[in-house]
Design goal:
Blueprint (H helix, E strand, L loop, with lengths): L5 H44 L4 H41 L4 H30 L5
């Protein structure tokens, strides 16, 4: 067996480390989204108790819903980040050509992460209307 080239080792290290960094980033994003959603829900409860106008309550409900959808998309993206690693190892052990499956799972993870970020953007845009003039 011949020794691996530097380029092969670099590719292997990048393939092993990249999902870990992505998962750490998504975890931090989930922390932010969770805190924002909790604050919105707390405000919703407080304003509901004060009998605020229906439009205001609907606005806060929409923000909470967007934050929840963003969280769900990011959680699913995290699952799909883990799946290609498992599939790649399985393919290597069994000598199965699973490159297309790994590619599709990775694209799915990126698509869900993009959806989560877009929902976060929408929620943050709605939050701007909550600021005093």
């Amino acid at each position: 067996m011949e020794p691996a080239s530097v380029a092969e080792v670099q590719r292997a290290v990048a393939a092993a480390v990249t999902p870990a960094f992505l998962l750490a980033g998504v975890g931090a994003l989930l922390n932010v989204l969770s805190q924002r959603r909790n604050r919105v829900v707390d405000r919703l409860h407080a304003e509901h108790a004060e009998r605020q106008e229906a439009g205001r309550l609907a606005h806060l409900r929409l923000r909470a819903r967007l934050a929840l959808v963003a969280m769900q998309a990011c959680i699913l993206a995290s699952v799909l980040v883990c799946a290609p690693v498992a599939v790649a190892f399985l393919g290597a052990l069994q000598d199965w050509p699973l490159g297309l499956v790994v590619t599709l799972l990775t694209l799915g993870a990126m698509g869900l992460l993009a959806l989560g970020l877009l929902c976060f953007l929408a929620e943050a845009t709605l939050a701007r209307t909550d600021l005093p003039p």
